[in-house]
Design brief:
- By secondary structure, the protein is an alpha+beta fold.
- It has eight helices and 19 strands.
- The strands form six sheets. A seven-stranded antiparallel β-sheet has the order 3-4-15-12-17-10-7, with helices on both faces. It has a four-stranded antiparallel β-sheet with strand order 11-16-13-14.
- A hairpin with a 7-residue loop joins β3 and β4.
- The relative contact order is 0.20.
- The structure holds 2-oxoglutaric acid (AKG) and fe (ii) ion.
Length: 353
């Protein structure tokens, strides 16, 4: 029996007589909801046993360094989230509880325009380092409500606003009304919900890095992919550290050195392409000179490997300036409709509140 079928057999049949929440794996019961007016629906907090699994995450330095190639610096936790049970439960939880988008956009390159359909589901939370969510935001995102989404005790998400990270002064945004719109006028940034913030805090402890953004990809089958790119945008600053988690189906993560003048000089002849078969629960920290010099991708899979179950990828990053916030919401939320996992039909479904 394949590993996947074993996991399905273990989690596929919920235990009878326990309170069960639609979309949650097995007998998991949420411990409350994160709410915010920019969320399309309240987002469940982690069941206690997943919180416990993340709290017991690897100690700093537990990862294996991969730095034996020019300009490459990876730290590979294999796994980070214990597998199969915790990693697979976290996969099912996040697929069921997060809003997803299928972003489309137009590009113009060299006078030619093209319409791009992102070949995977995406979502994003966070705000760049020039701003933060007010104290009311953190209480709103930790609201112990029972699912109505309205919060409790008057700590409604209406009090949540964005403030300057240094002065604490309120940042004038599209949603805050009254006067000239100055910042974040295209998208209302969303605080990282509790369920992903627990993983963010765990990753910060394990890596010693700071993260203020969480990007999520859902590859529903082998037909979904991400093409070769590097996460080297200027708004991440030089030598960015990116923590990348894998949950669900195993997919190959390919890396190759960027072509460049150095290669012609022979310096990078030794840089061989890399293939990491990322499994559920794995985490790869990419840091140092990696983004400036290497490309990475998740190629499509075909034939018998195409329908091998979905995979979620979560990356934590630190955007330094406001342009990063707009860029991330542009390409991971966009202007299209919201989708949510339908656990009966086992597919993403348009969310119509
Ligand atoms: O899915 C993955 O492992 C990689 C995702 C990625 O490279 C990205 O979101 O920038
Ligand atoms: Fe990437």
């Amino acid at each position: 029996m394949s590993k996947k079928r074993t996991i399905d057999a273990f989690f596929g049949t919920p235990k009878p007589k326990k309170t069960r929440v639609e979309g949650l794996a097995g007998d998991a019961v949420p411990t409350g909801y994160s709410t915010h007016r920019a969320y399309p629906f309240p987002i469940a907090r982690l069941p206690a046993r997943l919180s416990a699994a993340l709290a017991a995450a690897p100690a700093p330095g537990a990862g294996r360094a991969i730095a034996d190639q020019p300009d490459l610096d990876l730290l590979y936790f294999e796994p980070y989230v214990p597998r199969p049970a915790a990693a697979d439960e976290l996969f099912r939880f996040l697929r069921a509880e997060l809003p997803f988008y299928r972003v489309e956009y137009d590009i113009r390159r060299g006078g030619i325009s093209a319409h791009i359909r992102t070949p995977r589901w995406t979502t994003v939370f966070g705000i760049d380092a020039t701003s933060r969510f007010s104290a009311a935001a953190s209480s709103a995102t930790n609201t112990e409500s029972t699912g109505s989404g309205g919060g409790t005790g008057g700590e409604g998400d209406d009090d949540v606003h964005i403030v300057d990270a240094h002065t604490g002064a309120r940042v004038q945004t599209a949603g805050s009304g009254g006067g000239i719109v100055k910042h974040y006028d295209k998208y209302a940034p969303r605080p990282i919900p509790g369920c992903l913030d627990e993983l963010r805090r765990s990753a910060e402890a394990a890596t010693g890095c700071d993260f203020n953004f969480c990007l999520v990809n859902y590859y529903e089958s082998g037909a979904d992919s991400i093409s070769y790119h590097s996460d080297d945008e200027r708004f991440l600053g030089p030598r960015p550290a990116i923590a990348s988690f894998s949950l669900g189906a195993r997919r190959d993560f390919l890396m190759k050195h960027k072509p460049g003048p150095e290669q012609k000089q022979g310096k990078n002849d030794a840089a061989k392409p890399l293939k990491l078969p990322l499994a559920s629960g794995d985490m790869v920290l990419m840091r140092g000179p990696t983004q400036a010099n290497w490309l990475h991708s998740i190629p499509k899979r075909s034939g018998k490997n195409e329908q091998d179950g979905g995979r979620i990828n979560i990356t934590f990053r630190k955007a330094m300036v406001k342009g990063g916030t707009e860029n991330y919401y542009n390409y991971n939320v966009g202007a299209g409709p919201v989708y949510r996992w339908d656990s009966v039909n086992r597919e993403m479904k348009l969310w119509n509140p």
